Amino acid sequence: MQQPLKTPSVWVSLIPLVVLTSLLYIVIRNFGGDAICGGSQIALLSAASVCVMLSIGIYRYRWAVLEEAIVDNIRASASGIIILLLIGAIAGTWMVSGVVPTMICYGLKILHPSFFLVASCVICAIVSVMTGSSWTTIATIGVALMGIGQAMGLPDGWIAGAIISGAYFGDKISLLSDTTVLASSTVGVPVFTHIRYMLYTTVPAFIVALAVFTGVGLCLDHGDATHIDSFVKTLGATFRISPWLLLVPFATGILIARKLPAIVTLFAAMIFACVAMLIAQPELVARIAGVESLDFMSGCRGVLISCYGSTEITTGSPQLDELVATRGMAGMLNTIWLIICAMCFGGVMTGSGMLRSLTTLFLRFVRRTFSAVASTMGAAFFFNLCTADQYISIILTGRLFKDLYRERGLEERLLSRSVEDSATVTSVLIPWNSCGMTQATVLGVSTFAYAPYCIFNIASPLVSLIVAAVGWRIVQLKSQNND
Fold it and tell me: Which residues of the chain have pLDDT under 70?
């Protein structure tokens, strides 16, 4: 006999969020950028247990109901987890095969002192699109560009702003980005649909950033770019740099254009890179396999390690060593662990009705498309402030507004885009957020010093609001709610 379930009050529903915020504050203070390695997961599970105790103890929910909600949540993220594993494999194979180093070399050659800022933004965007990681881009090529810019006498804030703007542009639209996959899978939008729809706001925001960096760069004093030549030569001495390697991303682009499923496309991209690796970089494959000469078995060993494990290639430059080092599928496990724990928290919040109760706080502000988008962005920024983690912010915002958008007759792809236009790009602007702390530490520039110059990160939510106000490419579906 099914018992009637009472909807928790807003104040009770806020308790798990307060617990989560408090625990995450402790975790971030203790572990900083390493919070994703376990501390955040424990905080999520602890907050989920508080939600369970309140639901069972006060509102008499049955555990079976909450457990089913958790299972449904995790099941919905299964394809995203597979994609993340494939992304890890591609990160390894595309680096070892020389695809990413080739892109970096060609990108660095376009650098000119007069256009250093805009070129740095473009290079970081290219690398981030290819790797799918803003953190990796900033911690590697970004650090190198930071040193070059400082040698040219450019202000630290502008250099860091250009690097971060480019890195987060790539992180936002790359098929390999975990935030892109997370935002689309949380809302239930196909990843290709999500990326294509984001272009309407992301590209204009990036153009604004490029225009600003170009104008500012022309007004600043410049030095020389001798460091760039040594950077390119070192990469060329380690990898075989060839335009033929660009066939791998070109073939991947064709598969994307043909709208094949993301898992199929990513697996094919991994295979392309594995073949290119054996043809173009046999010495590196042998080094990874731990042998002097490559044969069939050692070749298979080297390829498999590049896909699933860590690879360290010595170039003679500490910055480049960090750039070309990869972690493969194993490097994605912390993110996957975090997603599973976040899905547990989201599941019990959904199953207990607390998430629905919190949604009522935003209902009074949602009347039209613009107010829906504005409320979504406000919530995402609020969660970035409170939880100090962009992944949690993406998940909570997506789950919170999913039903509301459906009731208001708004497309789910509008929700996934609004989440990324806010949660992903603003996380790095908050000093106590894991992204803000990490990038400030890596670049050696405080968050308050670089935040005003992250033009793309500032322009992205503003452009999204303008697009929502104009109604460009926004389709109003038949509402399921008459109010």
Answer: 1-5, 33, 107-108, 110-111, 139-140, 147, 151-153, 221-228, 256-257, 259, 319, 323, 362-364, 386-388, 432, 477-483
The pTM of this model reads 0.71
8 Å CB contact between 350 and 73: yes
The dihedral over CA atoms of 51, 57, 62, 64, expressed in degrees to the nearest 10, equals: 40
pLDDT at 206: 96
Neighbours of 258 (CB within 10 A): 8
Q: Residues 429, 168: contact at Cβ < 8 Å? A: no
> So what's the pLDDT on residue 483?
36
Encoding tokens for residue 158? Answer: 């502008």
Q: Is the dihedral of CA 262, 268, 274, 277 positive or negative?
A: negative
CB 184 within 8 A of CB 194: yes
Give the residue carrying structure tokens 């500032």. Answer: 458
According to DSSP, residue 62 is labeled -
CA distances from 184 to 9, 81, 178, 179, 213 (A): 29, 12, 10, 8, 30
pLDDT in tens, 402-454: 878 888 888 889 999 999 999 999 988 987 677 887 788 778 788 888 999 99
Angle between helices 78-96 and 282-289 (to 10 degrees): 120
User: How is 413-447 classified by DSSP, letter by letter?
Assistant: HHHHHHHIIIIIHHGGGSTTSHHHHHHHHHHT--H
The upper half-sphere exposure of residue 167, i.e. CA atoms within 13 Å in the direction of its Cβ, equals 24
DSSP assignment of 359-393, as one string? HHHHHTT-SSHHHHHHHHHHHHHHHHHHH--HHHH
What are the tokens at 421? Answer: 């236009």
Q: What is the 3-state secondary structure (H, E, C) of 75-126?
A: HHCHHHHHHHHHHHHHHHHHHHCCHHHHHHHHHHCCCCHHHHHHHHHHHHHH
